[in-house]
TrEMBL record, chain A:
Gene3D superfamilies: C2 domain (2.60.40.150), Zinc/RING finger domain, C3HC4 (zinc finger) (3.30.40.10). Residues 177-195, 210-221, 262-278 have a biased composition (Polar residues). This is Synaptotagmin-like protein 4. Its main location: membrane. Residues 7-125 form the RabBD domain. Residues 142-339 are annotated as: Disordered. Residues 383-505, 536-674 form the C2 domain. InterPro entries: C2_dom (IPR000008), C2_domain_sf (IPR035892), FYVE_2 (IPR041282), FYVE_Slp4 (IPR044134), Rab_BD (IPR010911), SYTL1-5_C2B (IPR043567), Znf_FYVE_PHD (IPR011011), Znf_RING/FYVE/PHD (IPR013083). GO terms for cellular component: exocytic vesicle; plasma membrane; transport vesicle membrane. The keyword Zinc applies. It comes from Channa argus (Northern snakehead).
Automatic annotation (TrEMBL), chain B:
It is an enzyme of class 3 (hydrolase). It catalyses: GTP + H2O = GDP + phosphate + H(+). It is a lipid-anchor. The lineage of its organism: Eukaryota, Metazoa, Chordata, Craniata, Vertebrata. It is found in: Late endosome; Membrane. This is small monomeric GTPase. PANTHER family: LD44762P (PTHR47980). One of its GO terms (molecular function) is G protein activity. One of its GO terms (cellular component) is late endosome.
Amino acid sequence: MPQAADTINLGFLSESERENILKVLQRDEELRQAEDQRVRKLRTELQDVKRKGAKRGDESYSQRSCGRCLEPLSRLALFPRQCKMCHHHICQKCQTVLPDGSWLCSVCIKESDLKKRTGDWFYDQRVNRFITTPAHDLVRISLRKPPNKRETTGEALMKSTEIKLDPPTPVPRARQKNPTTDKSQSSENSGSVASRESFESKPRSDIESENASISTSTTENKCGHVTPDRPRKEKTPSRSSLAGSSVSSLTIPAKTDVVSVDGSSETNAVSEVKQVSPSPELDVDRLFKKSIKRAPKPQEHVSTLDLRDRRETLEAPMGNRSQSVPGLDIKEDEEEDEDIDSLVSFHKRSLASSSSSLHSSKTTLGSMMSIYSEAGDFDSVEVSGEVVFSIIYDEHTQSLQVFIKECNELAYGDASRQLSNPYVKCYLLPDKSRQSKRKTSTKRNTINPVYNETLKYSISRTQLFTRSLLISVWHHGRLSRNTFLGEVEIALDCRDLDSPYEDRVVLMAKSASAVPASPFAQYKGELVISLKYITPTKTATEKSKGKKAATEEGGELHVLIKEAKNLIAMKTGGTSDSFVKGYLFPVTAKTTKKKTPVVKKNLNPHYDHIFVYKGLALDQMKEMCLELTVWDREAMLSNEFLGGVRLSSGKGTVKIGKEEVVMDSLGEEVSLWEKMMQYPGSWAEGTLPLRSTMGKGK
Amino acid sequence: MSDGDYDYLIKFLALGDSGVGKTSFLYQYTDGKFNSKFITTVGIDFREKRVVYKSTGPDGSSGKGQKIHMQLWDTAGQERFRSLTTAFFRDAMGFLLLFDLTNEQSFLNVRNWMSQLQIHAYCENPDIILCGNKCDLSDQRMVSETEARELAEKYGIPYFETSAANGQNVNQAVEVLLDLIMKRMERCVDKSWIPDGTVRANGPSNPDISESSERSKCAC
Ligand SMILES: Nc1nc2c(ncn2[C@@H]2O[C@H](COP(=O)(O)OP(=O)(O)O)[C@@H](O)[C@H]2O)c(=O)[nH]1
Ligand SMILES: [Mg+2]
Ligand SMILES: [Zn+2]
Ligand SMILES: [Zn+2]
């Protein structure tokens, strides 16, 4: 009884009967399209809700904080608080009580509501019914095509009849073996039918059992619910006459807001880690499906870190305004960002003799040419002043001792505030690694700092012959953005190291040529990230729930740090323990520094970590700049810069501290940023080459 | 008409022998009119109507109104259209099975229609309403209410004596069907977190996979 797909044919119908049926199908298609749109909108809404409260997986963790809003849960659980659907522990705010007295969490309630509204409850069942045919599964798997469970008979019939309904002659064409003979206007169609025929030769059997011939091709819809590829031009224009008589419309009630998105928006911290192609297609269905499939495990620490970052936010302003905050130095020390490499690139050239010993140095080549003074703005400071020091070699301890006495008349590191927090740093060149780095303490708010500190290097006397000492002075700026204040280089080969005489040397600026022409000149590996801007929730009425108003004033920027590739090895054994740090400029109270956890011993580390920046308006993003830098973590010493990216529109300047800094983003850095702004709600993913320097080019 | 401003799209389908009054029934329901002229339905057709559905809670309280967009498929009862019409069975969420109270054969054929439904509907036990139509023509009546009710009871489905001509029980029949569908919908969704206690829903599972294993039957 069942016919094969390609013999579907309304040949038994008269001309006018076919025409009638086609008109019905066309009306149906219009209804279906409206429905598709509605369903997509619903799915988007669900995505929004999910995004807001999305703790998953590890339930032991979730006992301590609400699985939706991530607020800590009190120990004293007076009420059962495990959502019966997702099993997360949920605070009372995030519970929605059902008519029967039970409750679900904000996400689950939305999800089950969506199942009803979209008709998924129905389609899910139908799929189950017809999928039980054993052959069906197999064939489907072998074709690697997901079934379009929403396709209706009308839709399928529409496709299969379009060609046949308007034949030039009533050809007794039982099979579409000859699509080229069709009229040119339907060539597009016949093409698709031809291909359908060819790949359906196998699956045909599986559908036979489910229904009559006409719908045989239904399950093989290639293009998902929306079927945008169906040519619209073939619709008969006479539709109105028929539709007019048969469509009835009755009372449509006044609009009531039935959908109430749960107001868990206020306290959200993290969204799910989604992997979606950054392509601009806005197929919500696909987004939705894919996002569910991915099972990102590192969710938990996302939220942990986020909480910690929040704590840091509170501390940050203190550091900025105070000259006298003790301990600031220590706190920031472990994450202080390196600037040595800029110096090195200069000195490598000037010290030809030392370059021969480069290979013996423990530093890897990769670290040498990079610079990351976070301000990177040494050009903007007019170097002035002098450094007073003495150098002796102590035979007894086999060590070189550098006595830093003081500096005089230094430049202001923070020019606008007439402020400098200077410290002195030394490298025993050509070793530019952290093993070679020595630092004094940081003096607050002075341009005439007195240190009287001795920096020691354990080294045999004979080795000193090929070395030189680089003494540089830096201003310790806010958020660890340090400013170069000047440097001197002392060759050790011809210096008397046995008598401690005080030297007073005028500080020098770096030669501009020392900076590599392009920050991309050296390959430092790549960083794979996704960006997504989330427009603010429009549920203004939800505000009345009494949450902090602050979170509602803007959208969010989510930065998914996926992975880095081909990082430079910093540690013995050819690895690095890396993490990524993020700064969003201009800095606001809400957008402080973020860090990923450290991924150990890996040059291709997967971070899968999200930075969430809140309270941002979309058009604000044009003027913002996101710096992501990769660092090698070193427990006792400073972290080593591995590379970075600077994302922005690439135009204009951004305020960093009190300074206007040029946003010199290039290539992908710009296009990814723009893609993010262009498609709010979608992930824009990109693989960005790491800059070897974050110094602002001039 | 087909703007997306509704909460649920509900699809029903009317079936039964030719001439029992399916087209008239739907016309009466959507437009409140009756046309005694008999125009055979060509294959398939559908009508639309919007209603507000208020669910009644166990305590009798009625909930918030839900906007329903109904798509009511009409089918030709003639055998020559059979392959076409049954193909549309799978898209319907509920069914109005009509027979003509003045035509015994149409009543006897209810059995056949029921088995057609079992084969072609979205699940083995879909929601169906049995309607004995043309009850206004009491003098020509060939099927007693008792035997009709017995049959409906056998299938476990509601029975209504309707008249597309005067509108008797037409709205009621459709409303009862709608209520059945809305309740089934609730059960289906509820069920998704009861079965085996597995974490799904928002978990990182693919709904397509997790659901197929959960609900091989539609007895929800
Ligand atoms: N008196 C009466 N006539 C009806 C009723 N329903 C349908 N008819 C008539 O029966 C004939 C067939 O009806 P129709 O709706 O076309 O049947 P269908 O083939 O099932 O669609 C028409 O002439 C109608 O006017 C009814 O309830 N009462
Ligand atoms: Mg009819
Ligand atoms: Zn909560
Ligand atoms: Zn839940």
